[in-house]
UniProtKB/TrEMBL annotation:
Similarity comment: family membership: Belongs to the enoyl-CoA hydratase/isomerase family.
Highest taxon above the source species: Bacteria
SUPFAM superfamilies: ClpP/crotonase (SSF52096)
Keyword field contains Protein biosynthesis: no
Protein's name in the database: Enoyl-CoA hydratase
Record-linked InterPro entries: ClpP/crotonase-like_dom_sf, Enoyl-CoA_hyd/isom_CS, Enoyl-CoA_hydra/iso, Enoyl-CoA_hydra_C
EC numbers for this chain: 4.2.1.17
Keywords: Lyase
GO molecular function: enoyl-CoA hydratase activity
One of the protein's GO biological processes: fatty acid beta-oxidation
Species annotation: uncultured Segetibacter sp
Amino acid sequence: AIDEVYKNLEIQSVIITGSGTKAFAAGADIGEFVGLTAEQGKYLAQKGQSVFMKIEKCAKPVVAAVNGFALGGGHELAMACHFRIASANAKFGQPEVNLGLIPGYGGTQRLVQLIGKGRAIELMITGNMIDANTALQYGLVNYVVPSEELLDKAKSILSVVNSKAPIAIAKCIEAANAVFDETKNGYEVEMNDFGNCFGTEDMKEGTTAFLEKRKAEFKGR
């Protein structure tokens, strides 16, 4: 599905959510873990990390609308999105220690990035869940809304985002991701992306529209 988002020019942004109100995603099928070797476990993590990295690096905004439980791999999926909105009944957690495991789809890294090392380690080594308001306090989610308003909230934010310049949006995401990429200098990425925006039709349209006091019509070019 994420490959389709990359390729389809008609898609401007994405909302990932669960069906119903009970669970966003509860995580992997534990039965599949039984009998796996260390090498097979590593391969499983590699596959999961690869998919979630594609979400994180997607040039189009990907928002997690978390309804109900987001545990284990489901929580890792939510964290791979660019930001998260939670329903009031949402629960978050990494319970892998209860199985003698650790998060394997990037959870140990993204959780530290999002809520800080101390809180992240506590959440991982206790296996405890936190509720939506605690997640908001920790900075894990941007908003908490009633379940029936969850999708409307996500759509409302993305309707604003979709009216902006697509190339500039992509560059914002790229530069923000560079903060956590040890192979890149984030300031250099920002400098290059800022400069490259000057070569786009959207930048010319945006500045002209501003000076002419009209709404810009961006084309993504």
